[in-house]
Design a protein that fits this description.
The protein is of the alpha/beta class. The chain is built from nine helices and ten strands.
Length: 283
């Protein structure tokens, strides 16, 4: 695949904390314009991998390139202006508790574009709040006044503040009820399609994997053991993959995805996009 088609390239990464090795020889390519789900057991290093890609964790070995720029070789702020081209939603939202939602969204704007006027910065923040699916009045609220789902949307609004090309999401639906999680999934899918985003999505949510991810990367044995569509992964005989996707929850998610797809096909048959419903046949 041509370099222009790869947004993130990871080669030979080793992450280690003391004597504990998290990753060893880890390789991964994230294609431009895809939603890549990242799964693995607890402690497999999913969040560590994301932190390595965005430069918060320096690996002991290996190379990381994002949008054609080396992250591991960055030496000062002039070398890492690439940060303005991605947005990150951390677990729990990671909002500043003493700032309103709008002020939280303004933080990256203040950092990367200090020259813009207060009025423009505030207008951008209001727009991003609405883009995340929050009501306009949420902009003036503090994180303590928000529900869990609203906090995640506020964190998403901040992640979108700089019109990023890349979006990093760490367990975005964790802690949400099934209805809220499904709504958040559809929001991510709409944003990805509308804004032409590349999405790196860490999740345990099998429904999310089936509903919105183009491919899934599996971390096990300290490396990426497989990357592919879910049917491609199901064809592999690795025990963790089989247990994860073919366990009770995996089968339930697959059944739900198949029902959802059948419903979409039926809807398209009954209500074609040109608005002309098929005429009923007389007996």
């Amino acid at each position: 695949m041509a370099d222009a088609d790869i947004s993130i390239r990871v080669r030979g990464v080793r992450n280690q904390f003391g004597s504990h090795v998290i990753h060893e020889g880890l390789d991964l390519d994230v294609r431009r314009g895809e939603i890549l789900g990242v799964v693995g057991g607890s402690g497999s290093g999913k969040s560590v991998l994301m932190r390595t890609i965005i430069g918060l964790q320096i690996p002991q070995e290996g190379e990381v390139e994002v949008l054609g720029h080396s992250i591991t070789d960055a030496r000062d702020d002039r070398d890492i202006d690439i940060r303005s081209r991605w947005g990150v939603l951390f677990q729990g939202g990671a909002l500043f508790s003493t700032l309103t939602v709008a002020e939280n969204v303004e933080v990256p704007l203040r950092e990367f574009y200090p020259e813009i006027t207060d009025e423009l910065r505030q207008e951008i923040a209001r727009y991003k709040v609405l883009l995340s699916g929050l009501p306009a009045e949420a902009a003036a609220k503090y994180p303590a006044e928000l529900s869990g789902g609203m906090k995640k949307r506020a964190g998403l609004a901040r992640a979108l503040a700089l019109d990023p090309e890349l979006l990093f999401l760490d367990e975005p639906t964790a802690g949400l009820d099934p209805i809220g999680a499904a709504a958040f999934d559809q929001l991510i899918l709409r944003l990805q399609q509308t804004l032409d985003l590349t999405v790196f999505l860490i999740t345990h949510d099998l429904d999310t994997l089936y509903e919105i991810c183009d491919r899934v990367a599996v971390i096990a044995d300290r490396r990426i053991i497989a990357v592919g569509t879910i049917p491609e992964l199901l064809a592999l005989d690795h025990p963790w993959i089989q247990e994860y996707f073919n366990g009770p929850r995996g089968r339930a998610a697959q059944d739900a995805a198949e029902r959802h797809e059948a419903a979409k096909v039926m809807a398209m048959t009954l209500f074609p996009q040109d608005g002309d419903a098929p005429s009923a046949q007389k007996a």
